[in-house]
């Protein structure tokens, strides 16, 4: 049940507690007032705790974030590794009194975030046959997309692409939530785990490859891209190279018998 405590220049701020998760999303903003020199002379301390009702709250790890970059730039995107396990995503900005908060014109551009849900691996087995029937639900800015269900596997491949439309600033201000479920015909679908994916990197680059660890077991592979209206989606130069794909047709087994002798005279057509 994680919450975070942020400390700078002796002043602390405490976040809300998010219950029963290893991938909390807060989207809370805190501020400290002072001179740029004083505020950036110390590192920001971020400590995450597990909320306990009876015993003392346990520390889940600490991160120290240098703010010296704010002496050169007004905004800093941070993915801070915790001292134990995991990381914390932050967006830190500096605004002098009398100035409006910095707004990058690029953040006001409208466009689409495309998320290619590629595959998952090492999923939790939810069924008696030692498998699951997994599908994924992706949520961003209140809009959900649901993938197809892949039957009887712990390593599903989807290769489905979903998109969200809006400004770059709005779409990247929240984390993408990915939850994988096991499809059940009779009982309620079981959750196989949740992952929270920060999209702040898209403010600097148009493409982000993600291997997101699920909260229970396994991981999900994603390719996330940003395309502003009027622009063409980014293309990997490697995809433009010409060459050949070689397919060695090796063998087949357990084919259907088509002839009266209980055999077949098989050949294959590759298209």
Automatic annotation (TrEMBL):
GO cellular component: membrane
Record's keyword terms, sorted: Calcium, Metal-binding
Gene Ontology MF terms in the entry: calcium ion binding
UniProt key word Calcium: yes
Listed InterPro entries: C2_dom, C2_domain_sf
C2 domain segment(s): 1-82, 97-214
SUPFAM superfamilies to which the protein is assigned, alphabetical: C2 domain (Calcium/lipid-binding domain, CaLB) (SSF49562)
PROSITE patterns: C2
UniProt keyword Calcium, yes or no: yes
Superkingdom in the source lineage: Eukaryota
Name assigned to this protein: C2 domain-containing protein
Source species taxonomy: Eukaryota, Sar, Alveolata, Ciliophora, Intramacronucleata
